[in-house]
TrEMBL record:
Residues 133-231 form the HTH araC/xylS-type domain. InterPro entries: AraC_XylS_family_regulators, Homeodomain-like_sf, HTH_AraC. This is Helix-turn-helix protein. The lineage of its organism: Bacteria, Bacillati, Actinomycetota, Actinomycetes, Propionibacteriales. It comes from the Bacteria. Keywords: DNA-binding, Transcription, Transcription regulation. Signal peptide: none annotated. Pfam families: HTH_18. The keyword Transmembrane helix does not apply.
Amino acid sequence: MHPWIENVALQAPTTPITVLPPDPATTVVWRMTHAGESDVLIAGPRTRAAYHTSKDLPVCLRLRIRPGRALPLLGAAADELVDRTVPLSDLTGSSANALAGRLVTYKDEPEQAVEVLGDFLLGRLPRRLPDRLELVGEAAAELASEAAPRTVGETAQRLGVSERYLRRVFREAVGVSPKHFARITRVRTVIAHARRSWSDAAACAGYTDQSHLIADFRSLMRVTPEAYATGRVPLSTC
């Protein structure tokens, strides 16, 4: 699974508010209610943060697909899923409903549920994978690098393609432009280093200065770093 799935998270509400940072990845979500209802959803790339009142769900399992690999697994380009959450059945038909029913058996065995979900997704892979799969993966890795993040132009040059071509295939495969991907990744890095000072977090994420961090943070997280740190966030009404 690791070439296709970046990470797996079993979520449980630990705070009254669920924070969903911007995310350039497409995610497979399996959830159950206390009434025993089960569904599998596809959450497309999220361009800005969302904040919701936490729901008490006995199971909420999230499989984060590696950037650029949604199309072979799901049969839908990531740019068609941006800022949308759709039932898996919309993409794969009734087989997704049967999958959701089968997963109920593994409500207390998340590792088994991950295996069942993975087998379902991998079973849908076409015999021939897109030629640009590795190109997009390499570009995403470079643009997300904390050690030495590259510009889009530098990344295209190193990969031996034009910047225009890279932008086109990257947006289709990942869902957002390379530049927006890099911005989202930097903000997510800042959140990961939130216990440090904002200046340290800015340096870790590759920002040139703290003002640059604050501008990006406000744009993508919809609040300032200070408001975010103190829990003053705009709750969704839906």
